[in-house]
Amino acid sequence: MRKYLSTGGIYVGAGICFALITSCFLFVIFKNTADVTVRKASILFSLMILLLIVTVMLLIRRKLMKFSDSLNASIDDILNGRNAIELDLESETLTGKFNHKLHRLCDIMENDRKQVQEEKQAIQGVVSDISHQVKIPLTNLKMYNSTILEQQLTGEKGQEFNRLMETQIDKLNFLLQSMVKMSRLETGIISISASVAPIYDTIALALSGIELSAEEKQINVSVNCAPDLLVCHDKKWTAEALFNILDNGVKYTPLEGEITVTAERWEMVTKIDISDTGRGIPEEHYAQIFKRFYREEEVHDIRGAGIGLYLCRDIIFRQGGYVQVKSQVGKGSTFSVFLPNEKQL
Hints:
With 345 residues, this protein is of the alpha+beta class.
């Protein structure tokens, strides 16, 4: 088994080597000359060399002990969560270089700790939001079911309560599906994979999801997009993002309204405008509508979970793009999606 020399072993080894060399040196001198002065000078020279070596060894040992104490103190500070470490970052010595590396390690550990804490808080926030959102339809279902059982409702009244229960079940299903998409995206289970493809096909895929609901409300949907307009994007997830905007447009646009989709290529990005003639959004709510589970008080009677626009912004952001909104209350809204023309590394 390979063994490594200790500091004391190095000192002993150096002492033995020096003793052997000095003995050989004095042996040669004493054998080849009988001059007393030369012999005394040789012995004095050997003693001076010995003194010099001992002095150098003591200085090295002192430096090593000081370095070791400083290193132990710094590591103790890191382990105890105290990050105010005094480091000689400007020194060009070995100690200075090591301290620089230690400082970087300390920063990395602190950043990792903060990231873990932020992720923990984010998870707690998601769990809290989910609990709140699921609680309402579950409470309603329990109330409707208890009413049916206690009053033994039948006929038209019973059918009415069954329809109410079916509505709450649909709301739960919609909420859970939305949250699954959100969690899979946030946790990285599904990653964005962008490639160059016609944006026209992606818009068509998004529009297919609102076709029936738009027909029911007699909403006229028009598209202005060149079939050969190529954009670097993830077709599936971009269609999901556009669908969420279109779905909101259908929900908040009155009967016989209009929804217009326009796509045009700019120098650096491709802009996709989705305009509707719906209820509009107050300017002070522009930032809030992209928050998870946010819904305005006036629209709580309309189906929704407040996840669609949050998902939309996250999907577009992961592709290097962004989303803007302009709106006038009572006249409608325009959501602008900007996607980079070149793939973002």
